[in-house]
Amino acid sequence: MILEDNFRQDFYNKIKKDDKSLVLIVSVDSDALCTTMILTHLLKCDDIPFTILTVEKWSEVEKIFETKRELRCNYILINCGATRSLSRLQISPDSTAYVLDSHRPFHIENVYANEKVHLLVNNSEMSELQLPDVEKVIQEDSDDDEDNEENRGSYEQQMENIRRKAIKREEMQAWERQRQRTLWKYYESTWFSTPSCVTLLELAAEMNRVSAEIMWYTAVGLNSAMVDKLISIEMYTQICVDRMRPFVHRFLPKNIINQGKVDDLLHITFGRELPLAIYSHWDLYNSMWHNEYFSIKTKNWTQKGDTNIRHLLTQLGVTLHETTQKFESLSTEQRIHVVDLLEKEMDSAFATFFATLGYSGKLSACDVARAVTVRLEMPRSETLMDRYRAGQAILRSSITGERQERTNLTHTISSNCQRTLQVSWKSVSAAINMSEIIANGPYYLFSCTTSIDEDMIDSRHFLYNTTGFMLRAFASMRKGRTSKPLIAMFPLTGESAGWLVVTGVMPIATIYEDSLLKTCIGRAFERVKKTNSSIRIIDDSFNPDIIRLKSEDRTRFIDLLRHAFEGD
Amino acid sequence: MNSNDQSRGGVADKALQLVLEMKRNPDMMPPYNTDLMRQCQQKIDELFQKNAAEVQKISAGLPHDPTLLHPRLGAMIHIRRCMLAYINERKNRIRSYRWRYGGALPVSVRNALCDAEIQFFNEYSGTLARFQQGLGEGGVNLLLHTAPPKTLFVQVRSLEDFGEFETMDGNLVQLTKDSLHSLPRQDCEMLIRQGVLELVH
To answer: Distance, in angstroms, between B192 CA and closest chain A CA?
Structure first.
């Protein structure tokens, strides 16, 4: 069942008035974390007790529902649960599940067949969903009563009955075929819609409970989707313009000045920013070196790479001295000048949010989103809840002035984020230098031979960024490489040795066409699994295009995937 | 005042020293200064004797010098006031130790107290215990609620699989390992002390 509008009435007030216990099932990603922060703030204001459970895989969600079967609960699933049917989970009759998920498309049973599941969707998105009509996909079983009259009547009537039945069966089969076709089209590609935190921000605004903190959490959540390459820059800008605009002006210094002291108040500004990852916490040279745009432009994985990048810097008129020292230690004029030059060079329309608090430096939501995402996904040796709490601490530290917490944030940025970028760049350069990417019929295949940290391979942030970067870099080497998708395989080590992590990106040509970044890779994987069930695949992730595959089944998988793509 | 002229000190110097001793050690309990206290007492005695002698002269009609009568009285009152301040400050500190350390004093503090002070401490503990017993039905441990709660609810993290837990308002909560909960403060205080839950901020 879809809740389209009026979330305050249909969603929030309901959970507020019910005396059932409230369970938040939170997927561990930055958007979900930000959403939970906002939601728990609202709940705390109303003194509603709640429980937070963190999940990372489908099996964990199933386990939660299994253990809680006899309890009367209201469940809120955040960034998980919409894409698979929740009917199978046997939600107890007194319980209700509310799903706030940015994964698309919804499972059709969640939309039509299950009254206990409520999906929260912004009504502006309904046209994008392209939901098939109910009668086309859900069968109504009301035709049974005619069977009883079979024995009565003359021979002709019986014949008539039989004929009618035959016609009906025929119709049923046609309907079934039609249904398959409709569903195939519906499920063909998966994509991400507006991050959930934006919906929650609007809900908070409706209740007059927006504060600078909530605004900042939303900004970070929105940027994390952008950083993870879940939504395109067009969509990002559109969300900023359409849905964030009423809030952007509220926490500007201009508006706060009237209230007195500006220095120690948190204010949030919205402005242009270089799409260079964490450059303000690094030096420009390194940041450019590992950046997708500059790396591809100078082809710095080749032997001439270093010369090329120096050449580029000379052309731009930036001195080496400026680029190799820490960005923070440059003088203000230099900083503005260099950023200006690079902005012109990169020609991007990227704008983001900045938080300023007292005398501690300005932080961009983009950098914080990166830090939170990386901290949430690594290291795997920590339990899920520990990582969740650490991510929460980092998110909070970005807007509190405490020194200890600030150091924690900058440490994460300067160690984990930088390392992720370096590893990402290294795997791309190794893949291209050693020509590990091969064309395999309708797609390119990359099998990683070097061993990469398991922490990285399990991180969605790393996988999406690296494969996207890799395909672009690969396409830049020769013309005509823009029409095929790239499938990447990374071997796992340690405990789960013998398994591969498989993911994929859509061809570059389609990325330009489509602002939703739809991908059919997940569908292809699913099809392979269906056609040959002996292949050992674990598709436990919330993202259908990240799966685990047993190494021995690799060759068969590659062949079948080829058929799957050719069949499309 | 002739004797004081030689040492060039004030009449209440010793008394001031007592007060300063407390002021200079705000974090610890200095040992009870019996010596200084006695000296202050003697000073008051001495001043009193001098005044008494003067008064006797007046009543006997002998030649006398009444100018110093009032200053001496003022000095006596001042010294007494300093001594009382010293004792009062010590008393306040001892009381705060009861709230901080409970019934048993650490040795370092105990050694710094005089017998009367230890007796005061014991009496104070007894009174407090009796007061707590008298509150409500089973008594209230006031030491648990020293800071006023900012919210009715606290965020806790479950450290073990505890199972179902019923809050006062009848809600059932499943406490599984590594789950976060927001629960009424009074309900989870017990579990926090048992080590099942952990406060998070």
So the answer is: 16
- Which residue of chain B comes nearest to A43, CA vs CA? B182
Smallest CA–CA separation between B25 and chain A, in Å?
30
Looking at beta carbons, which residues of chain A come within 8 Å of B157?
Answer: 385, 389
Hunting for tokens 């705390």 — which residue is that?
Answer: A44
Question: Closest to B171 (Cβ–Cβ): which among A21, A52, A54?
Answer: A21
Q: What is the pLDDT of residues A110-142, one digit of tens each?
A: 888 778 888 998 888 888 888 888 877 777 655
CATH number for the domain whose boundaries are A2-129: 3.40.50
How far is residue A162 from each of residues A140, A151, A166, measured CA to CA in Å? 21, 12, 6
Q: Which residues contact A208 (CB under 8 A, 6 or more apart)?
A: none
Q: Cis omega (within 30 of 0) on the bond before A246? A: no
Answer whether B198's CB lies under 8 Å from B160's CB.
Answer: no
Domains of chain B: 3-133 (1.20.58.1030), 147-199 (3.40.5)
Residues of A near B (Cβ–Cβ under 8 Å) read 19-21, 40, 43-44, 47-54, 67-68, 71-72, 383-385, 389
pLDDT digits (tens, 9 = 90+) for A304-352: 888 999 999 898 888 888 888 888 888 888 888 888 888 888 888 889 9
> Does ipTM come in above 0.90?
no
Are residues B200 and A389, on separate chains, in Cβ contact within 8 Å?
yes
User: A540 vs chain B: nearest CA distance in angstroms?
Assistant: 21
CATH class, domain A435-566, is: alpha beta
Q: For the whole model, what pTM was predicted? A: 0.80
